[in-house]
Each structure stands twice: as C-alpha cells, then as structure tokens.
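Input record, target 12 of the design panel.
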C-alpha cells in the first residue's frame, strides 16, 4: 500500500483532497463538515484502536448525490469511505489515507414493502430496528440480528449475521437485489426480486461482504419473513463449557424450531448480571429461543430442557411471555457493554471465529485455557448454534505487554479455527484488523484474484482504500 500513501498523502494528493472538499462545501453547505469532533467520530467504529479520521464528512440524501460525490472523488483521486452506524469492529470506517467519509444515515426511507412476495426495498441508511418498526403491523419482520442497530447498507457490506442465523441465515440469504454506485460514479442495479436466477455472475453476492471496496450500496431489496406464531425462551446453566457446547451440538441435530442458541461463559454471565440486573447462575450458560405454532411451543421447550439435562444442564428458566423474551435478549445485546463495565476504564479488542459444530467445544475450551494462562480478562460468548463465537479482550489502556499477550492468544485462536476447517471471521469481516488472516485463510492466489477484481472495478483504489488488502 506504499503506492496508495504516495498517491493520497503526497502534497499533490492533499491538494486534490482540499479542492474536493471546497467543491463539496460550496454545493452541499452544512451537510459537508470538517469539524474535528465529527471527523474523529467517523474515523472509528467499536474497536480498540482509535482509527484515522477522514478530512471531511458529508451526508448525501439520494443516490444521485452519492453518484455526484463519488464522481468528484474519482476525478480528483480522493478516497471515499462509506459510513453507516459505526458499529463495525475491524476498522472498516477508518481513513488511513484521509479523504471523504460519506455518512448514509440520512438515506433512511423504506421505499416499498410487498406482503404477498415477502420482500421490501430500502435505502442503505435504514437500520434493522427501523425496518422492523416499519413492518410491525404487516405480520412480517426482518430477522438478521447482529446485536447492534446497524444500518442495512453496512450489514450488506460486512455480510452480517448474528443471533438468528441458526434458523434464518445471514445477509447473503436475504439480499435479492442492489443499487450500487461504482468507483467512477456510475449507478448500476443487479439482482431481481425473483427468488432464484441462473443468469450470469452473481454480482449481488459479490457486493455482499465487499466492505465498501467495490461500490457503495444505496438501495437494497430484501427478503422478509412471517413473524412466528409463538416464541419461547429458555436459559440453562451447565457445570462446564464442554457440556454446554455438547448440548448445542445435539440440539442442532433435532427438529426443534431453534431460532437462537447463544453461549455465555461464566465471566460474561457475571458481567450481564451486574449490568442488566439479572440473577442468573454464574456458570456456563445457554440462551435458547424457539419459534413455532402456539399449540406446540411449550412441548418444544420441554424437549430442549430434556436434551440440555442429559448434558448436565440445570437451573432452567423458560417463558413464552413477550416481556421475559425482551428482557433476556436485551441483556444479550448489551453483553459487549456489560463486559466493558466489568473492567472500568478498559479498552476492548473484540474478535470472532467460526468453526464446524463438531470442532466448537475443543476450540472454545482451548481458547479459554490460553486466555487464563496469559492472565487476561476476556469473556467468551457467541452464536454457537452456527459455530460462531466471540472473545472480548478487556485491556488496560497503554499496557503494551498486556496487548502483546492478547495478540498471541488471538493469533493462536485463529490458527486453531483454520486448522479445524473454520474461518478467521464468521461475521466481523476483515477491514484493517484481519488482513493478514485473510491471506492465511484464503491463500496468496485467491487474494490475488480478489485484488485483480478490485483493480478492475476501482483502478484508482479510491473506495475504502487499505481495507481487505495490505
């Protein structure tokens, strides 16, 4: 990336950037800001490292404006970074080469809903919670739940998944069509509302997960689902992590309507108890959600309890009440902030891997052993129904030795996941943080193909430069 620094950060590059900002301020007025606080806010997500701020932040309100801004940046050879809600974890929105941050949060309209076809079209700045609020009276909902109230454009760009993947799948299973602004400012549309197609390359899937490096998504056509007739929730504690994960393995092979299976180790349970005023047993625990017909949901809860009991599970709490369901999952969604609160003043380094279910127990147990041996504070939790789990390293700011130990545990975790046939990231993506791991997982030749595609579609490397590739 030395050539990028030479191009974007040289005196000529800085002059081109200043000229672009002057144009944007003239044409967009207060919607283009160079304020330091605003730039710093848009230069980082939820991550340990502070990140690099852009030179300016602009708020477009239409695809036409996005096209205008990108066309300008292409002519001036200025980086442009798309920004959604800022909830990413691998430095996706950092601006290491400066440039223009494009905040799409004002493009927040639900453009169309078809109940008959169970699909909808939204602008990229619509959040998942905003979409579900809009759909509340239709009997439909959008199920992909990464925990944060992310924008749907950001969720497309990072190929998001989350707590409900075990039943409903991740973003690739829900994105039917896209409107995208390419690196030259041209607007394209790919995909259709049809549920399947065998026409040409699948560009929709290619943009889904490209982290804003191939184009800027402005509109998305999504598959949505009928709300379940009944929802049951269950918590159960286990004597050990292995018994909890073994229970997950067996539950996953049943015909139960499992919508979520979340694992929390005892450290994370303790943090959630303190942060969310719960009184759960402080031992390895599963949070389980079941969807199904009202007449059968109680029977499903009983079957899940029986399976968990066979693996040492106990302290069961179950409910079909909406209030209890909301309390439980609110606590799960706040788990990251609960972990932060458990070590006041700390910084968090968050990582995730995903492995085949058969390798899950050993991977979690070996990771816990490494964390404890290194003397680190790091809760483990995850969407274990699909083999994905997270480690939240809680680090003392400025403690280089502690960070070095965390990095070694992190490297061992990823090597372990790859050796088991897994991936270095089930849902956080690559960004800046895992570029080396992308090479380790995919290999130089495959990464070279990715770079060739990037070069063909964005020869100036203006779209989110420095992400995915060194």
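The sequence produced for target 12 reads:
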């Amino acid at each position: 990336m030395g050539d990028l620094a030479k191009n974007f950060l040289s005196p000529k590059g800085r002059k081109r950037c200043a000229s672009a900002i002057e144009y944007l301020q003239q044409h967009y007025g207060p919607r283009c800001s160079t304020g330091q606080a605003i730039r710093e806010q848009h230069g980082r997500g939820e991550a340990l490292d502070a990140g690099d701020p852009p030179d300016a932040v602009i708020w477009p309100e239409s695809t036409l404006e996005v096209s205008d801004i990108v066309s300008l940046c292409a002519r001036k050879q200025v980086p442009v970074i798309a920004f959604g809600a800022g909830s990413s974890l691998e430095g996706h929105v950092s601006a290491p080469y400066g440039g223009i941050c494009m905040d799409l949060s004002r493009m927040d309209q639900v453009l169309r809903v078809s109940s008959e076809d169970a699909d909808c079209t939204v602008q990229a700045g619509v959040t998942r919670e905003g979409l579900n609020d809009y759909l509340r009276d239709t009997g439909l909902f959008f199920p992909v739940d990464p925990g944060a109230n992310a924008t749907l454009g950001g969720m497309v760009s990072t190929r998001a998944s989350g707590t409900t993947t075990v039943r409903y799948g991740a973003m690739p299973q829900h994105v039917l069509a896209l409107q995208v602004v390419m690196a030259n400012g041209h607007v394209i549309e790919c995909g259709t509302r049809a549920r399947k197609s065998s026409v040409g390359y699948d560009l929709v899937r290619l943009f889904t997960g490209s982290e804003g490096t191939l184009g800027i998504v402005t509109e998305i056509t999504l598959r949505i689902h009928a709300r379940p007739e009944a929802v049951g929730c269950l918590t159960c504690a286990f004597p050990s992590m292995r018994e909890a994960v073994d229970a997950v393995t067996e539950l996953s092979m049943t015909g139960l309507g499992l919508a979520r299976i979340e694992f929390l180790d005892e450290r994370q349970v303790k943090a959630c108890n303190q942060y969310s005023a719960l009184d759960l047993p402080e031992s390895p625990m599963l949070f389980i959600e079941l969807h199904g017909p009202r007449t059968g949901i109680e029977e499903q809860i009983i079957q899940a309890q029986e399976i968990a009991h066979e693996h040492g599970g106990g302290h069961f709490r179950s409910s079909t009440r909406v209030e209890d369901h909301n309390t439980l999952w609110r606590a799960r969604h706040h788990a990251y902030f609960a972990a932060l609160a458990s070590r006041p003043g700390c910084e968090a380094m968050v990582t995730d891997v995903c492995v085949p279910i058969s390798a899950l127990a050993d991977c979690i147990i070996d990771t816990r052993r490494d964390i404890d041996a290194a003397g680190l504070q790091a809760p483990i939790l995850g969407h274990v129904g699909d083999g994905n789990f997270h480690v939240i390293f809680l680090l003392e700011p400025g403690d280089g030795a502690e960070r070095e130990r965390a990095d070694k545990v992190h490297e061992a975790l990823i090597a372990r996941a790859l050796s088991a046939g897994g991936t270095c990231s089930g849902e956080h993506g690559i960004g800046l943080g895992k570029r080396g791991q992308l090479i380790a997982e995919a290999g130089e030749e495959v990464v070279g193909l990715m770079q060739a595609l990037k070069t063909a579609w964005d020869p100036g490397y203006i779209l989110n430069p420095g992400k995915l590739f060194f």
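The longest strand covers residues 216-223.
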